[in-house]
Amino acid sequence: MAKDNRDRTSIDLRGIRDRIEAIHRDVDLLREMKFTQVIRTLLIRGIEAFERQYSPRTSIAYLVRQWSLEELAAETEISLEVLRRIQDGVRPTDGELVDLATALVKSNGEAWNTHELMAIRDATFQKPVSKDSKEKQPNGNRK
User: Fold this and answer.
1) The model's pTM
2) Which residue from 18, 26, 40, 58 has the highest number of Cβ atoms inside 10 Å of its Cβ?
3) CB of 140 within 8 A of CB of 89?
4) Who contacts 48 (Cβ-Cβ below 8 Å, separation ≥6)?
5) Residue range 60-86, pLDDT digits in tens
């Protein structure tokens, strides 16, 4: 396989080198790593944190799309019809989020808890309108 030169770059560490070295020295998990591996690990963690907070991919619809709907339905006992609507960007109810929390996991393998899923949903959607209203809700994909 040919090496892609775009995968290598120089980084200006002015103002942050001391902080990285302190983390390298003080965190047991990182102590045995080479300095470049520590930088890469911190960069990956920073990207993940940024994506969780700002990425439009972090929506309930996106998280549901990572599953086979049939498997997710079996795991959560949510109907395929409801899962398809959520996948298409319909606002999930609190009860549906409780059920989804039994199956959905973060990129690091840790389970999402119901409160985290509610925060994602609430950041994605406006407050629900009353049941009497026919107003459309945002699609959950921030499109």
Assistant:
1) 0.52
2) 58
3) yes
4) 107, 108
5) 988 998 899 999 999 999 999 999 999
